[in-house]
Specification:
Elements (H helix, E strand, L loop, with lengths): L3 E6 L3 H10 L7 E7 L3 H10 L9 H7 L2 E4 L6 H10 L3 E4 L10 H9 L3 E2 L8 H7 L4 E11 L7 H5 L11 E7 H7 L6 H8 L7 E7 L5 E9 L2 E9 L10 H15 L7
Parallel strand pairs: 1-2, 1-3, 3-4, 4-5, 6-8
Antiparallel strand pairs: 6-9, 7-8, 9-10
Helix pairs in contact: 1-10, 4-5
Amino acid sequence: MGKLKVGIIGCGTIGSELAIACQTVLEERIDLAGICDADEKKAATLQASLKNNAPVLKLEDLISKSDLLVEAASAKISADILAEAIKNKKDILIMSIGGLLGKEGLLKKADDAGIKVYLPSGALCGVDGLKSASVGRIDSVSLTTRKPLKGLEGAPYLKEKNIKLQDVKEETVIFDGTAVEAMKGFPQNVNVCAALSLAGIGADKTRVKIVTSPGYTKNIHEVQISGEFGNILTRTENVPSRSNPKTSQLAVFSAIATLKGIVRNVRVGT
């Protein structure tokens, strides 16, 4: 059986780590077909860092040369990339899951077309349990996210509410609402709530609370799930990525682990 040809869209923190993994720990099963980014400098920098020179391609060329697409670009375009994958009959792994909220019809379209869509759990523990619980009745799902001040910089919600992070001097609840509202206000900060929503009772019913403090040094996610199965409570303390404080290191590992699961025959977990 030949190697799986993987094309990576987005050369930021996660895209770069995945590209490196494709040429190291996954090289026996995966061939990095190419990389793509709207920022040509980012793509060139990643290309130069790789062990084997992967071509920098335009999106249409990357799609045609790949068996599996990996979206690691932005929630702004992840739904568009999924639509292109469906159009071109390509399987896809999506990291910016938040971009799919409100566009869940694309997932059904992919399913109907026989396109495999992989949505990693990211920096969150508890998704396996939630998937199992969703076979029965789920009464409530909530997420409390604690992030360092730097991890929330640039969020549209802060600008909209005129919240200045430099004025935060103690533990403060910045946001309390639904997952839909959280993704609109913090599109680059709480991607985990999208995975939780799609695995469970939907973004309109999933509650999200975002807390920050000058003393926080980790991205911490606490999930509470209640239903006919009983109750689940998980707490994940994530170390932020060295290159991007908005991304947890576990999210990077989750992406690599998902790729491993795709190319290996033995899979553990729901």
